[in-house]
Amino acid sequence: MREQQGGGRCHQGAAGRRSVSSGSSREEVSVMREQQGGGQCHQGAAGRSREEVSVIREQQGGGRCHQGAAERGSVSSGSSREGVGVIREQQRGGHCHQGAAGRRSVSSGSSREEVSVMREQQGGGQCHQGAAGRRSVSRGSSREEVSVMREQQGGGQCHEGAAGRRSVSSGSSREEVSVMREQQGGGRCHEGAAGRRSVSRGSSREEVSVMREQQGGGQCHQGAAGRRSVSSGSSREEVSVMREQQGGGRCHEGAAGRRSVSSGSSREEVGVMREQQGGGQCHQGAAERRSVSSGTRSVSSGSSREEVSVIREQQGGGRCHQGAAGRRSVSSGSSREEVSVMREQQGGGRCHEGAAGRRSVSSGSSREEVGIMREQQGGGQCHQGAAERRSVSSGTRSVSPGSSREEVSVMREQQGGGRCHEGAAGRRSVSSGTRSVSSGSSREEVSVMREQQGGGRCHEGAAGRRSVS
């Protein structure tokens, strides 16, 4: 009765149904409370199970409930926890995806991963067309497929026609998945990339790297789609040159054929070709003499492979980072990962200031740390202050080598699209501090955090009740 007086007016006809008799269960009372909450109550809630109550609570959350949800959206008492989670997500913010009522509710036998993808599909902005059926991951899907699905939903618009072709089949290698991720990176995908640039299962690691570079930043060279994609038999050196040609600014005219190094070319020729593509104009007649311009940038025959790679990168796109000459060259003992990060820093657009020394990942860094660095450089601008600590916005969000996989995932999500919620600096939270995930948090809490960051804003008043402790 107390609850009925709560807010606004009581629902009509409540006299009988909604008055809680002394023998009523705790759950009925909770439902009564929720029914008075906001908007309209679903009829006949009185006898529902605890889970149904949770869903009804969510349905009242914000905006309007999905039409016809009264029947379909209420979870039957046998539904799994995950089914409830998805229904909760469907109600979340803004408009539900059309026809989602039936198709997107996860049946009680669905795997945990399917639920995660469903959650992501609801994320932010608009769902990809036709995603309802095709993009839901079937029970047998690998973890990696799910990651790609997540990436496709990331930020901005999905690549056209991606619905079917870009979803990675369950047998796909880890590398294919990485390329898919890169293609979705930032800005627009290169036209016609949908089919041709997806790496087939048998592709070598190097091919994958080149694909990544082609997507780098700015526009791809015209007609590059076919000619510049390296075939699986190409030598390592050819791949390096291809990478440079895609670098930045425009490629030298007619370079497509002449400057691509054939598999029999000597190492030194490759070095010069690399330089010629560098930036600005190539010196005439350099083809024969193999000089770069003065002499300082030509790689001597005794140089280590790694030094060569870094010099290559410095020439990458636009101008080289100041003072990079000495500091950014990787010494022969550097780990593979350090080199990868260097490459990423030069990627596209401008490098983060002060990155010269501090952002190189030390040889002991975990794979995950490197992954985050890569994400930070992804697309658009990096959060300021990221220079030293590999953080998202300030310094506290950097993932220490001992961090759990889930923490890393949340960091990645925060970087996803648009900007990170303010105040997130210390606690990986959505808006304030209450919703932050501590390092010991359960998987479910992390999932909720992800969703909260998703799209639009969290339901008001959720701070206490709807937040995950």
UniProtKB/TrEMBL annotation:
Endpoints of the signal sequence: none
Positions with biased composition (Gly residues): 1-10
Organism: Knipowitschia caucasica
Ranges in coiled-coil conformation: none
Region (Disordered) location: 1-469
Superkingdom in the source lineage: Eukaryota
Name of the featured protein: Uncharacterized protein
Residue stretches of biased makeup (Low complexity): 13-24, 68-85, 99-110, 128-140, 160-172, 221-234, 292-303, 323-334, 392-403, 426-441
Lineage: Eukaryota, Metazoa, Chordata, Craniata, Vertebrata
